[in-house]
Amino acid sequence: MGYYLELIALFWFLVCWVGYTWYSRNRASTRACLSNTLDMYREDWMRVMLKRENRISDASVVGNLERNGAFFASSCLLILAGIITALGYTREAMEVFATMPFSAVPTREIWELRLVVLLVVFVYAFFKFTWSMRMYNFVAVMIGSAPLPDDTKTSPAAREAFARSAGNICNLAGDAFNLGLRSYYYALAVVAWFIHPMVFIAASTLVVVVLYRREFQSDALAALRAGKVFEEPVPGKQAAETTPKS
């Protein structure tokens, strides 16, 4: 029964991780959240950037965002090195955990499975953070090639297309960073697995609840929405306008 409980806990963890990622991505298309709100701010940032002759501040902001990704990516490498080292000292680590209260010591195979799952989580996070860094590098290049305000050869339509394209790259970079950061939350749930599979299940569920509240119901989201005027259709108005008159 204990072996099946381990597999059930792992399955529930995957459901929480993959399921919430799918849910948040699809829910963002119909409901206000941190992701789509920041997307609008980033596009506005690119439009404002095109009106400035001096883009040093914009390049500085992009550099800071890129350094944030570099910090977490380097942290992932250190954590991965620690996990790989722990795989070589499985017996010693199991003896330490056996002395802890409320901890269920599994078989060597299950213990190594837990370490491998933790390893995979941080490998995934590393790839997301490095991809975010690279895309912020793309944004820096686009800022450097952006047309100047007094450039009469660039039409307003071309400027808008450029702002949307640069904003989209910036949004993709932010989304990749967000997915990498979420991996740290899920890694904490995996750490709870070393205590007991039921604690792992509870921790995985708690992580989803925390992520949902911060993404869709946080005070930060309310503050961001309050700082921008959104032209949203009045409920029922659009349907009334599209209904053919008899």
TrEMBL record:
Top-level taxon: Bacteria
Keywords: Membrane, Transmembrane, Transmembrane helix
Full protein name: DUF599 family protein
Organism field: Marinobacter alkaliphilus
Transmembrane intervals: 7-23, 70-89, 110-127, 184-212
Tagged with keyword Cell wall biogenesis/degradation: no
Pfam families reported for this sequence: DUF599
